[in-house]
Amino acid sequence: MKARPETVDAAALDEAVRLVTEVCERACNGDLEARVPVISGSERAARIRIAINGLLDHVDAFVRESGAASAAAAEGRFHRRFLTQGLDGAYRAAAEQITHSNQVMSRTAAQFADAARARQALADELESAVLTVSEQVATAATEMGRSANGLADFARVAVADAERGLGTVSSLRTSSDEIRHAVDLINQVAAQTRLLALNATIEAARAGSAGRGFGVVANEVKNLANETSASSEEIMSQVNTVQQSAADAIGVLEAVTNRIREMSVLVEGIAQAVDGGHQIEDVGLSQLAEVLRAEVSRFVSTIRAS
Fold first, then answer.
1. For 137, phi and psi rounded to 5 degrees?
2. Nearest to 200 by CA among 222, 177, 182, 227
3. Averaged over 144-169, what is the pLDDT?
4. Which GO terms describe its biological process (predicted)?
5. For 279, which DSSP code?
6. Does the pLDDT of residue 207 top 60, yes or no?
7. Is the pLDDT of residue 236 over 70?
């Protein structure tokens, strides 16, 4: 026996279509809480209502769970998993993909956290090392500057002493020249005295016995002249020795003075490099240590803030 076809009420059908259309439009506009109310009139309309409401239930559940999982991941709560109960097909596949993505983000976040901790540790080590080095450099620069300034003062005093010594030896050489001149005069006097003694001896011999006493005196005068001449030669030899020594001493003192001047220039250059010069661009080692410390502190602060 054949079933009789279901009688369709046109007014009820229009109402069902209107309700379904309204709910679908609300769902398209983002209202996933909209549902088709009970439709009276036919069994097919009831099945349409159940199918549409079921679809909306799955879509609503998927959207809500997706949002909750994304919010948890954004807050770093990667342990929050996508609940897949009641989801099938593409819904379950998308849910599993979101869960897998959260797991990947969790591992990436852990790696970033490890990198951040390593960066912080590196920044701490860098800051500690640079601060230690800069303090050591500043301390060494202070000591070097003090030593260099002391050496510069010593070099200046040494140059002054060497110049005074050079002047003293030069005066000694001048005095030796004056002694030589005096000895030359003595030698000339001795030579004249010997000549006069010779003439006196000749005249005494001509006088015979009357000039004998005068001859003795002339002989004594000649001996005195000879002794004077011999002493003059000895003095001249000593003067020559003194002059040669003075010349050697002058050469040595001049060389030493020049070396000390060169050392003084070098030491002053070292002192300027350590302490800095009078110009703005002449930055010394101590200032460089401070600049290094400031720059590294700024760099470390930037790393910690990032």
1. -65, -40
2. 222
3. 74
4. chemotaxis; signal transduction
5. S
6. yes
7. yes
290, 137 Cβ separation under 8 angstroms: no
272 or 282: which leads in pLDDT = 272
Query: What does the alpha-carbon distance between residue 16 and residue 21 come to, in Å, rounded to a whole number?
Result: 8
Write b or e for each residue in 26-59: b if 16 or more Cβ atoms lie within 10 A of its Cβ, otherwise e. ebeeeebebebeebebbeebeebbeebeeebeee
CB-side neighbour CA atoms (13 Å) of 54: 9
User: Which positions ≥6 away from 234 have C-beta within 8 Å?
Assistant: none
**Euclidean distance between CA atoms 252 and 33, whole angstroms:** 111
Q: What is the pLDDT of residue 211?
A: 66
Q: Which two tokens stand for residue 278?
A: 């009078």
What is 17-64 written as a DSSP string? HHHHHHHHHHHHTT-TT-------S-HHHHHHHHHHHHHHHHHHHHHH
